[in-house]
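PROTEIN DESIGN WORKSHEET
SECTION A - STRUCTURE
LENGTH: 238
TOKENS:
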């Protein structure tokens, strides 16, 4: 199993592969919510647009799953380059440079595809079933984790690369994607509105009546569902 491989003493699969897998899970969850919505007897207005979400989400999921493997392969290639004989310093240096660039490109692709998954999340949040909104929140959390993990992998590779031109181009692209992440996070807060004077809007009316003690509250830029019972009656909900 993938989790067992990650937990082993081997260096791969590592953070880069895990980031790609998180992105794939995010895309998968979005496809699930879209399909659930489309399968309803009376889909909400505009739900037909979710067909495109499923198509694009599946494409992203497959691309990110391939990156899980490619990230491991890129790391192994880099390790082989470092093991080359030091008797030929120029050849070894060039091999390390090529392998480091490859090791940077993979997580950069993970970052890019995960941001695309976040764009899809807003489409699903607006047009998807409200009963599955918590799955959209989970998907955005996974995609955001994929972005942060991938970004850290890009940066750690660029730090060891003696190629200022490539580092500059790659760094600019990374900053652009991170900037888009921030704007998408802001948009998400407007979509998943916090209504402190109402019951949680993501559950059914019957569930609301049974759980009036619950609220949907902001937490580190996310909207999370929690109960007074989780932390004690003394905790305010506003």
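SECTION B - SEQUENCE
RESIDUE ASSIGNMENT:
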């Amino acid at each position: 199993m993938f989790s067992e491989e990650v937990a082993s003493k081997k260096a791969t699969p590592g953070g880069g592969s895990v980031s790609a897998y998180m992105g794939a899970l995010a895309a998968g969850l979005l496809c699930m919510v879209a399909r659930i919505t489309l399968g309803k007897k009376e889909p909400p207005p505009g739900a037909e647009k979710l067909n495109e979400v499923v198509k694009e989400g599946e494409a992203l999921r497959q691309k990110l799953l391939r990156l899980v493997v490619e990230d491991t392969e890129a790391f192994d290639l880099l390790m082989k380059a470092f093991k080359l004989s030091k008797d030929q310093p120029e050849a070894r240096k060039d091999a390390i440079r090529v392998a480091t660039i490859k090791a940077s490109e993979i997580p950069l692709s993970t970052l890019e595809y995960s941001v695309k998954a976040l764009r899809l999340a807003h489409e699903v949040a607006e047009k998807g079933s409200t009963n599955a909104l918590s799955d959209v929140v989970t998907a955005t959390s996974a995609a955001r984790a994929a972005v942060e993990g991938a970004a850290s992998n890009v940066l750690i590779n660029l730090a060891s690369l003696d190629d200022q031109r490539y580092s500059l181009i790659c760094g600019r692209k990374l900053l652009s994607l991170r900037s888009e992440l921030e704007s998408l996070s802001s948009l998400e807060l407007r979509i998943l509105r916090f209504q402190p004077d109402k019951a949680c809007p993501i559950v059914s009316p019957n569930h609301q009546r049974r759980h009036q003690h619950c609220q949907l509250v902001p937490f580190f830029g996310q909207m999370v569902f929690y109960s007074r019972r989780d932390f004690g009656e003394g905790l305010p909900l506003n």
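SECTION C - NOTES
Confidence is low (pLDDT under 50) at residues 194-238.
Residues 89-127 form the longest helix (39 residues).
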